[in-house]
Structure formats: structure tokens, C-alpha cells
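Question (not urgent): is this output format expected?
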Amino acid sequence: MQPLGVFYASFNRTLSYVCAMVKFEFRFLVALVGLLIVAVPQAYAQQNKDIFTPNGQVPMYQNNVLIELFSSEGCSSCPFADAFMQEVIHLSDSSQTPVYVIDYHVDYWNKSGWVDPYSDSMYSKRQLAYCKVHNEPSYYTPMALVNGGKPKAGSDKKRIGVEITQNLARPTPNFMRLKISAIPGEDSLIVGYKAWGPLDSLDFHAVLVQKSIQSEITAGENKDRVLHHSNVVRRMASLSVSKDDDYLKIYVHPTINLDNYRLIGFLQHRGSMRVVAVDQLVFKP
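Got this back:
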């Protein structure tokens, strides 16, 4: 796959676009930038209050978005998806829009000449579970899912942009806030959540991601390339949701510098694998 174009944006200065190689990409980029400028999460601004509750019905909240990318350093198409995800993270961070990205490195490329040091068989199994739920006949990289929806190429800017827009515009009965603490002398973080809305058949996942990684590849399809990754999954822990306020522990090496990490948590339906709520905490120096 080839990259569709290069985009630069500044939210404090005049918005510009560069190298729009095809018309549909231009429409996607305008839509993506537009949603990230105007869709500041109302649920955040209202301090967890619901957006609207018509006639005493179930409270509805501003929807948040989780993009799950499945990739590998052994895949020559994945750097294009990596670059796109970096754009999405930059846009969402700078506009404070609740669009979050996590990058799972699968292990089935490890026999192609390069062993990805960030890969794990657990992430490959997660991708296969998604393919089974969505009746996807084959698995591949880069693959992306927006809030657990239909799999698509991780570099498909148009389709991913449309799904981001649709999800942000769709109120949801679920909302979640993360909280975190540490116990002195222990090599783990206590990650808790507070949830609003229906809790039936939900799992809570806590994911520790490394914000930025640079890798020099010496073998395989990406030989002699320097790869740049964002929000790479380094730890993941899960529990079955039984109440609206709970916690789990996630292992963290005592020497780790958390300044280059984020913690992303999300609630996911066990059967459909739809992500119904997501939140993020950023560690600051």
C-alpha cells in the first residue's frame, strides 16, 4: 500500500493542506480536521454529566473513539499505517478530542527474517478473535478497527476517517473514567475505572502503551529502514465487569520511565467486541 498524501495542520494558525494526491483523500482530510476541531467532548466539559436525557430516558454521553491497529516490524506495508496513526494522535492531542490509538504488534511475522521485539502472541490471538467475530476470511497487517467495528486496512485514511466522524457524532449510553495509583515498593500500578451505563457482558481492559519508539531494522521486509511507532502496547490486563467501580493491577518494571507512556482503558462487549467506552491517562514529569 502507498501513502495517500501528506498532511500538516496547526490548530492555532491558518489550516493548510499539502500534497492532496486524490480528491477523496482531500475530502477525508477536511472531514477529519473538522471533526477534531469542533468535536471537543461535551461529556468532559460537563464533568461527566450526560449530554441529554430526554423524558427521563437512559442518559446519553459523548462517544469516545478507540482505534486498534495490528501491525508488525516485519511488514513492509505497516510504516504507512504508523505514519497515519501518528497524524491521528497529533490531531486528537492538539484538539483535546477523545480519539485514542493503540498499536498491537503481532508475532506471526516473526518467521519472515525479523523478530519484532514488541510482538506478543496474545495480540495475534486478539486479532484473530476480531476476525472471527466479523467473519473476516483472512487476517493481515496493517489492520485497524474503530471501536471494535469492521476490520479495514490500517492505512485506509478515508474509511477510518469516516468511522471516527460517525462514532464521535453518535451519543452512547456508556461512559468511563480511569483512575490510577501506585503502592510504594510494588512493581505494579493499580488501575481503576468508574463506569456509567449498562454493564452487561462487558470486559475492562487496561493497556500501557509506549508513546514513541524508533527501531532500526536489519533484516526482513523492512531491512535497512528506521521505523517510527506510536502508542505501542507494552502491557495489557483485563477483568470481567461486575460493578461500576473496580480495579486491577498492571505490571510495570521499577526502572521504567513513565514519561514516555500513556494508559488507555476501555470497556468492551464480550460477544460483539464492540468498544462502548474509552478513556486515557497521560503520565507527566
